Amino acid sequence: MKAYGFKIEMYGDTSVLPEWMGSAVRGAIGTELIKLRCIYDKMSCDDCLSVFECSAKKMLLTSDTRDSQLSVNPYVVRNSIAFENRISFEIILFGDGMSCAGDIFRVLMNGLTLFHHKFRLCSVMDIFTSNQIYNGFIWNDFEPFEIEKQSFGSGELTVTFTTPWINKSQKKRTDFDYFIRACIRRATSAMKACDIELCIDFNKLFSHAKSVETLSQSLELKPISRYSSRTDTKMNLNGFVGSIVFSGDFEEFSDFLSICEYIGIGKLCVMGLRQFTIAYL
């Protein structure tokens, strides 16, 4: 699966920022994309003649041209960090989202407003190759990267949730079957968005997943809050961070784990939640 991956650094006039700010970054980029592309400063897509080429629609709405069960936002904002008067975050674009890279860079050059403070662009780096794309003065070319399959066989797999894992029931589900089903849903949606043909025996996968054991877990419940400009409400959420160690044969799940380690799992992964890393022994 091909993707663009950018690490963005911006500077502003404040260092007082929340720990989990992916939602705010996503919202700020969305607001500026609407200003850039929507003539009425709001998304009125029904009567818009350029709706199918619109970066605001591609980035903010799931595609209605695909199977509704496989629709997906073609991007992720992740690893948002605040330090001194700077912020750093990553954007991964895939599928239709790759065509939005130019508009996203235009938005970033104009600056983002976060928590009533303006942030200006410092640098852009390719997270896959570590090449400098923008150094504050000069823009360099960049190429899409092929997210390659990692080989996982039989052994132990440690999954570390670096940002809160949120589920509707708020129960601490630690079985591999529950985790890998979320990975499969997310990865197949992303592959479908990239026009990758799928031939998967889901029943075989789910049956095999039940044989994987949970050896240990170390999870902590983290409360977070986010503001939705769309609904004008503040939402309080809870999620688990920490690690789970699984034991079994992971070969059949390698594609899904490799993709989701980059793009996360679940609806809230577009704003940086439900991100994880993998260590295989």
**DSSP helical segment count:** 6
What value does the average pLDDT take? 83
The arrangement of helices and strands along the chain is EHHEEHEEEEEHHEEHE
Shape: globular
Residue share in helix: 10-25%
Secondary-structure blueprint:
Blueprint: E1 2-11, H1 22-37, H2 55-60, E2 75-83, E3 86-94, H3 101-110, E4 112-114, E5 117-126, E6 132-134, E7 145-146, E8 154-165, H4 176-193, H5 202-209, E9 213-228, E10 233-249, H6 254-263, E11 276-280
Antiparallel strand pairs: 1-3, 1-5, 1-7, 2-3, 4-5, 5-6, 8-10, 8-11, 9-10
Helix pairs in contact: 1-3, 4-6
Summarize the structure in words:
It is a single chain. This protein is an alpha+beta fold and 281 residues long. It is 24% helix and 34% strand. The protein contains six helices and eleven strands. Strands 1, 2, 3, 4, 5, 6 and 7 form a seven-stranded antiparallel beta sheet that branches. A four-stranded antiparallel beta sheet has the order 9-10-8-11, with helices on both faces. Helix 1 (22-37) crosses helix 3 (101-110) and helix 4 (176-193) crosses helix 6. The protein is globular and about 55 Å long. The protein starts with a strand and ends with a strand. Mean pLDDT is 83; it is low at 63-71.
Which keywords apply here?
24% helix, 281 residues
In short:
With 281 residues, the protein is an alpha+beta fold.
